[in-house]
Amino acid sequence: MKLYFLSTAVVTTTFIYQSYALPFDQAEEEFSYTRKLLSEIDVQEAVKQASPLINILSWDESYAKAKMLVDQMSLEQKVNITTGIGWQTGPCVGNNGRTTSPDFPELCLQDSPLGMRFADGVSSGVAGINAAASFDRAAIRKRGEYMGEEFRAKGAHIQLGPSMNMLRAPEAGRNWEAFGEDPFLVGVASAETITGIQSQGVMAVAKHLIGNEQETNRLVHSANIDERTIQEVYLWPFARSVEAGVASVMCAYNKINGVYACESDYAINKLLKGQLGFKGFVQSDWSATHSTVDSANNGLDMTMPGDISFYSGDSYFGKNLTDAVQAGRVQEDRVTDMVMRIVASWYKLGQDQNFPNTNFHSFRPELDKHIDVQSDHKNLIREMGAASTILLKNLENILPLRTSGIKKMAIIGSDATTNQLGLECEDHGCASGSIASGWGSGTSRYPYLVSPLDGIRARAGNIIDITEHLRDDDLPVAAELASKANIAIVCVNANSGEEYITIKAVADANENTIVVIHSVGPILMPWSNHPNIKAIVLPGLPGQESGNSLADILFGDVNPSGRLPYTIAKRKEDYPAKIDHGMSFEYSEGINIGYRWFDKNGIEPLYEFGYGLSYTSFEYRDININLNQGTANDNVDVQASVTIANTGMVDGAEVPQAYITFPEIADEPPKLLRGFEKIFLGKGSEQVVNFSFRKTELSYYSVESHQWVVPQGEFKVHIGSSSRNIRSSATFTLS
Ligand code: NOJ
């Protein structure tokens, strides 16, 4: 019996960053500047300023203000603002140049999508993939709000997230940073996150535009994606981000159809700024700029971290850009446009007023003010950890655990515990013990990590006698322990290759085995049907409150309501895409990503997209369709409603999902997610849930007309509790 972990994080840059020393002269100069910056700060003031009432301006208002400032700038000043000051030469992972007379500050750009990287006193919450698994718009927005609050209090102007690349190949190293395999879900999660972050006056960054769906060869490969697939899958989340008012977009490392993303006229000018009408600024991924003239003319607005390669001391922008303007190869208007976009974004987020000084230092702890900005965010993190935990299997209602019935519990596996080394290493790169986050630039430092063992112990108190074997070897010992317990809990994670042996040894010895999986993404589970494995719980990457969130679910204090944001296949070969080791690869599955592929090819998954069990049951009553405007044009407006009743014995949350089947002419996959809601229902109660389908939801991209088109003909709406558990369907026709 084998367990294959599909997801292996391959994020390498962090360690490259760490291994260089800063050139002496640059270091000294910057050191004194930074020291001055930090000594100016009144710590209390910074925290006080952290909970502002932000008045977010419209783009028109922001541009009007920006014009007055930028009009006073020389070419060199403008160029300075577009150019990062160099890797590790400021307090943040990225800082751009500032100007005086007129004054524009050095902006602080800081990772990551789940919390602040390279800082202490910050929270380390659920990963993007868990935010998506919550299927809870309000919770995702609150997550954005608390992250924005922490970034602001630390004086970071720009949070480098959310990450919104698609989970195309299950092995891809950074899938966990983003929101899964479905564009609609990724779009909603991205927009809510951005709205949340920006409500605190911090700029969000939609990343990475586009085609960064794997880490292998990411600096050089070309993602070859056809026009329709770009529009319907990969650009979709960026479209929703622009609608949400995102301030910045990060172009990717890779090439798109043969052209580097950061100098792609097609991706930046035509699609993002043209078609989507993006008014903010495009920043490069770190060292993803490859030219001066092509990048500038094709839409790049800011190069990060500024130097051509780390510590090189030169830049494709900076003097090279000034020279290119003077030589007539880049128009000064283009440089003015770059700066207008940056300065307007700063005004839009109200950063010209009371923005706290940067008070942390990513690279020099001795210059860090060590301000604790966590507030009570751990409560939301615990809630979200539980709300994003997916219950995959629950035979004989073994869960929730009833403390009175259990005398002895065995907890097995290294993932049940934590060790100091795993907690302290930078970017979680040497994580050992339980994992609650992936590793790389998408992380933030744990303030602490509640292990599964600690969480379960705290909840079980003295009532249950807990024995433990916190290793993945010595299987006879594990089996012996399991055989003497009423319940055996095996904790496994995606960073190890040995747990399948542990799972089998324990399951053979204990007929009430519960498997808990901390994983960065889909895994293969050929053991899932073992009759002694009564329950499978997938908390994914729940962040610092891991063990507490897990205990909340296991003991029924919270009724599970997480849903799979990806498909778990029976076999690796069933997935449509895998990591490509070449330099150029085709996205040959096209628009049939994720569950769409399984639907179209009649492949039975092990657990389908949108799936997750509850401790209660829900009944769906018939759909009502209301065609407010039933013509196939831009004003189309179709409403659907369904009544959902909690018919079980406990309160709980349900996630009704609306899938649409398009008329044949659209040539879409069998069904597409086009709506979801999370509703909380007390036992015995019911609620009407409404879905609204407008042009965005009811159009497909026509490669003939190069436009989004609402087709005429018969549509079907399916409302269900997963992509395969459709409870009620109805048709409507657009004429
Ligand atoms: C590279 C990563 O791809 C990007 O997501 C991150 O924001 C930058 N490095 C800065 O650390």
Automatic annotation (TrEMBL):
Q: Which GO terms describe its molecular function?
A: beta-glucosidase activity
Which EC number(s) does UniProt give? 3.2.1.21
Q: Which segment of the chain is annotated as a signal peptide?
A: 1-21
Residue ranges of domain Fibronectin type III-like in the record: 654-723
Pathway info: Glycan metabolism; cellulose degradation
Using the record for this protein, list the coiled-coil segments as residue ranges, or answer none. none
The subcellular location is: Secreted
Q: Name one Pfam family in it.
A: Glyco_hydro_3
Q: GO:BP terms for this protein? A: glucan catabolic process
Which GO cellular component terms are attached?
extracellular region
Which controlled-vocabulary keywords does the entry list?
Answer: Carbohydrate metabolism, Glycosidase, Hydrolase, Polysaccharide degradation, Secreted, Signal
Query: Catalysed reaction per UniProt?
Result: Hydrolysis of terminal, non-reducing beta-D-glucosyl residues with release of beta-D-glucose
Q: Which InterPro entries match?
A: Cellulose_deg_GH3, Fn3-like, GH, Glyco_hydro_3_C, Glyco_hydro_3_C_sf, Glyco_hydro_3_N, Glyco_hydro_3_N_sf, Ig-like_fold
Q: Which domain of life is it from?
A: Eukaryota
The enzyme class is hydrolase
The family note in this entry says:
Belongs to the glycosyl hydrolase 3 family.
Role played: Beta-glucosidases are one of a number of cellulolytic enzymes involved in the degradation of cellulosic biomass. Catalyzes the last step releasing glucose from the inhibitory cellobiose.
Protein name (database record) = Probable beta-glucosidase G
Q: State the species of origin.
A: Thamnidium elegans
